[in-house]
Glucose 1-dehydrogenase A (Nitrolancea hollandica Lb), 254 residues
Amino acid sequence: MTLTGKIALVTGSSSGIGRAIAIRLARDGCDVCVNYHGDQQGGEDTKQRIEKLGRRAINVQANVGKADEIRALVQRCITDLGGLDIMVNNAGIEIPNPILEVTEAQWDLVIDVTLKGVFLGLQEAARHMVRRGWGRIITISSIHEDATMPGNAPYCAAKGGVRMLTRTAAVELAPHGITVNNVAPGAIATPINQKTLVDPDAVAALIAEIPLARLGNPEDVAGVVAFLASDDAAYVTGSTYVVDGGMIRKRSPL
C-alpha cells in the first residue's frame, strides 16, 4: 500500500490510537494534520515523529465537539498542507458511571466529543471532498458499539451512533467518490485503559476473554486504518472492521 502525496487529518492524535494512526499514515506517505484538545505537548511529539519520517506535519488545537473549531481545524489542514484526502475521526472520551448516577453534564460531554464530534468532522471533511470528487473518511468506534459495557452507557450509546452514522454517510457520499468506513477496536493497550494495565490480575482476566491471547496495540488499529485509506480498499464502504483479537466473537458466537 502507498499513500504518497495524500494529506490526512487525524483527530485526537496526541496519544494512543490516534498517534499510531497518524504515524502509520505518515510512514505510508501522507502529510498529516495532528489534532489535540488539551495535550499540546503530546500533539507536538506526534508531529515531530512524523517529521522524522520525512513528511510534513502541523499540530492544531481543536475541540471536535464545537462546529466552529472543526471548521477551523479542517481549514488549517487545507491551507497549511494543501488539501485533505483522508479524514480519520478518532477523538473520543469515556466517563465511567453507573447509569443511575450519570449526570446530564456527563452525558452531554461524552456525546459531544464521541458522537457529535465524529459527525462534525465527517461533515466538514466531506464538504471539501465532494468538491474534489474523491475522499476517504474513517471513523473509530469500539466493540462497545455492539458489546455492552456496564457503567459506560453514554460511551456505548455514542459508539453505536458512530456505527450507524458511518453506514448512512457511506451511502450518501458514495456518488461523490468518497468511501466511509468504521474501525472498532477491542482491548487496546492505550492510556485510556491505564487503570486496567497496571493491575496484573485485571490484565490476565481480560486476556482470558481474547482468543488471540493478547491485548491489542495501537499499531494493530493503525494498520487497518491505513488499508481503508488506500486504493486497495477502493471498493469498500459502509463497513465496520473489528480489531479485537476475536473478543466479541467469543462473547457472542452468533
Q: What stands out?
A: Strands lie at 7-10, 31-36, 57-61, 86-89, 135-140, 178-185, 240-243. Residues 11 and 35 are 5 Å apart (CA to CA). The two ends are 33 Å apart (CA to CA).
